[in-house]
Structure formats: C-alpha cells, structure tokens
Amino acid sequence: MGLFFLLGLFSFCVLLGVPVAFSLGISAIAAFWYEGLPLVIGFQRIISGINVFLLMAIPFFIFAGELMLHGGIAMRLVKFASAAVGRVRGGLGIVNVFSSMLFGGISGSAVADISALGSILVPVMKEKGYDADYAVNVTVTSSIAGIIIPPSHNMIIFAIAAGGGISISKLFLAGVVPGVLMCICLAVAAYLVAVRRNYSAEKFPGLSALVLSFFGAIPGLLTAVIIVGGVLSGVFTVTESAAFGAIYAFAVTLFVYRSITWENFRIAVVQSVRTTSMVMILIACAAAFAYMLTFYRVPNKTVDVLTGLTENPILILLMINAALLVLGMIMDMAALILICTPIFLPVANSLGIDPLQFGMIMLVNLGLGLCTPPVGSCLFVGCAVGKLPMEKAVRTIWPFYIAIFAALMMITFIPAISLTLPRLVGA
Hints:
Layout: H1 2-15, H2 20-34, H3 39-50, H4 57-70, H5 73-85, H6 91-107, H7 110-127, H8 132-142, H9 145-148, H10 153-161, H11 168-196, H12 207-233, H13 238-256, H14 262-295, H15 298-309, H16 313-330, H17 333-350, H18 355-369, H19 377-386, H20 390-395, H21 398-413, H22 416-425
Helix pairs in contact: 1-2, 2-3, 2-14, 3-14, 4-7, 4-13, 4-14, 5-6, 5-12, 6-7, 6-8, 6-11, 6-12, 7-8, 7-19, 8-11, 8-19, 10-17, 11-18, 11-21, 11-22, 12-13, 14-17, 15-17, 16-17, 16-18, 17-18, 18-21
C-alpha cells in the first residue's frame, strides 16, 4: 500500500504541474511520514544525494558547454562539416547530423546542441530550399548525440544512480561507438528523405576551404579531446578534467577566436547556474525517492515480475526498452535516469548485461524521449527555433525515429558496440 501511496502522490503532483524535482521530494518525504520513519532520515537522504564529490564535474561540464554555445565554436564546426559533407544530395541535412556529432561531443547537452546549431542551420536550410519540417526534424533527432558521445553529464548521473561502482572513463569510451552509429543511421535517413523530396546538393568549396575550416575547428574540437583524454590518461580526475575543460573553452573563445563578449559571458554564467541548480535539486530529491523505492523492494520485485513473465532475455530487454521509451515520452531525462537505474539495472545484471551496455541502452532510449511528444524538450526547442508547429514536425519525423530505433536495437543486442572500445583501451 505504501508503494501505491508514493507513486500515486508523485503522479498527482506531476499532473498538477509541480516540477518533477519537487514532486519527487514531496512524495518521498510523505512516504517517510506514511511509514512512520523519522523525517530527519528523509532530509538526510536529500542532503547526502548531492554530497558526492563526483557531482562537482556537472557544473563545469555545463559551463564549458554554455561557453562554447555563446563563444562561436559552433559556427566553426558547422563550416567544417559543411565543407566535408555538404556536396552530397541533401547535404545540409547530413551537415546537420555531422555538426551535432562534433558539437554534441563537446557540449554534452542535447538542448545546447539545438540552441547553437539549430539557430545557425535551420534558417540556412530554409533559404536553400529545404522544407521547414525536414530542417527541424534533422536538428531535433541528431541533437541527442550530445547525450551519448562523451563527455556527457548524463553519464555521470547514471554512474551515481548505479551506486557509484561504474568507471566514468569506461562510460565515456562506451558511448563513442553507439553515438557515431546513431549519427550514421540518422545521416542515412536524412539522405533518403532528401532524395525522396529531390533536394539539391551543395557545391564542393574546394580542398583548400576544407583544410582551412578543419584548422579553424581544431581549437574547439580539442576541448573534448582534453576532457576525455585527461580522464583516460589518468592525468585528471573527472572533476579536474571538467574544470580544465571549462577554463580551456573560455581561453579559446577569448584569446583564439576572440568571439566571446561580456554580454555572452554573462548569459553563459546565468544559464549554467540555472541549469546546475535544476540538476542538483533533482538529484537531491531523487535520492530520497530512490531510498523509498529500495525500502519497498521495487528493484527486487521488478526482477521477479519480468523473469516471471518470461525467461527469454530478448523479450525482457524488449520490455525494458518499451518501458523506457514510454517513460521518456512523459518525464524529464535526468529524473528517469535516477529513478529507473536502480529498478532496471538489477534486471539487466540478472541477464548478464554489462552495466556499461545497459547505460548506453538507457541513454539512447531516454534521448529518443526528448524528441517525442508530449514532453519532448528537444522537440519543443527545435520547433521554436524553426518557427514550426509541433504537429507538422511530428507528422514527418518518423523516418528519423526509425533510424534511432534501428541504432537502439543494435546497441541492445550487439554488446560489442558498447564494450569493445572500453576493453581495448582498458580504461
């Protein structure tokens, strides 16, 4: 009965429009009171949820992404991508995907990806004769590369939700191949839709322009190399690497590109503080909520229910994927990582699924949820940038959904996609 009270109150708060973070905290504390547990333990769980040194990396990652968003790095990455692949049929769609792969791997944020690249590419694609729905759909779906390709603060949240026993460096490595695979699938979808709609190809600017755009993009690209390379080499901890990445991003935008203004710097600081505050409040309240889920033995019961329905690991994985896809459509990603990881990770472990592979499965699933109504934040931002009603975008987005789903199935049933690189490097 207590579990129904916890979940019922949480659902009621969400339906009333209470922010997810506060809905988690209110329902968790109410469940403590309902069970007669000392309320002080509930508040201790909330505080202990953010009393984790590893979480210090998150604000630095977010700040580095905001600096790159407002410091002109995105524009140089787009120029390089356009010079490299723009001459293919529907080239600007593939440029969009390729740019997301590059910028997403630096910023680590899907929304930052849309805000930076969408504001640049969507108007250009419209001017070149591409339909608005195509431009928005490519931008929205490719933006989730920032969740998979390292560095990604969502990977840090997953590691903490999993109990802190997962190596961040291994998670970073595990995300490289799945992220690139997903972008390849999206590029194929962008090409096929472009051919069907008879979009034209861009003119090749020449080898010299390609080389110049590449060298212009190198300082920005080195941000991801420094962050990930510092962790893998052991020179930095994750937190130190994130801090150094933020310093480097600021130095590049100020001294190399000379594109950051005082106003843009102020906006980057304000946005970073706002985003960090939301993430930290969410993690804190989710810690108390997760404690009550464990108190009610939800992870154990979930394992029993799923294995009771079938012992076929393929069917169990499909059911987990279906559950995550549905939940991703109606809830925030960070909250779902914190809630669902303690529930579904034991199920995955019982099937012999490596936690690194399961992390990729979860991130791709929930990333797809960011692109789907009714609560797809990436879809909302993309439609706002493209000045397109959401209904029109959703009507023609299905080829890109299929591309992401195809990548998801390969990641789910081919462990080598996620595990080969961590095993080779031995991080």
